[in-house]
Design goal:
Length: 284
Amino acid sequence: MVFTRLSVRRALGVLAFAALLSAPPGVSSVSWAQDNDRVVARADGVDIHESDLTLAEEEIGGNIPAMPPAQKRDYLINYLVDVVVLSQAAEQQKLADRPDVKHRLTFDRNRLLMESLLQDAGKAALSDAAEHEVYDEAIKQVKGEEEVHARHILVPTEDEAKTILAQLKGGADFATLAKEKSKDPGASEGGDLGYFTKEQMVPEFADVAFRLDKGQISDPVKTQFGWHIIKVEDKRIKPTPTFEQVKPQLENYVAHRAQAQLVDNLRKTATIERLDKPAAPAKK
């Protein structure tokens, strides 16, 4: 179980809006708003801050039609004004005391606390040392994997492939012929496929490409896509990614691992009962 920053901020948005239900006139809608969090509007004495716009966009942004930024800003401000006005009307009608509303507020509060705790645990676990430890352990398990850099020309029939092969043997340039003859989407790049591992290509193609030496050109090869002429440009052992290249993934892994450990530890010490089904029989 892991939670992203976005899900935490969405929960913050839910509670920020819910807090408006009980905010008396003249009280800021977001008690944690910093001094430099500019007030952009005021509805019945309740301040609407710049940070509220961010929360509103995270909460309803996916449902807003495409529109220019200025128009979108007006839309969000109007939405927040509606939240204030309607929540105050709900307060006057004592809806905050209604059991179903109380239940939802409790649920949202618990969810926010849970996600905030997990986010804090993830942040606290992040360090260069922890990330390097994961990186070093992963590198030990990486096996050298061969890659081939190849070009190809793809045509519908074997006869066309044989004609092209004859032209290549006669000294024609492979990339030029690929641009002129190949039916593959990469024809404009001279049939260049870049580097690939054996598993990334269909078996018939990969078997031939990995048997060829650097600079060699294949006989016609049939696959489900048609007939190929393959030229191997280079061979190498797949480079190991540097620490900096995979740092974002390392950060996610370290944070998520800490969150999972926290959940596991708390579950072990919690008293958890399932009341919707019979208890499991005691072990003898």
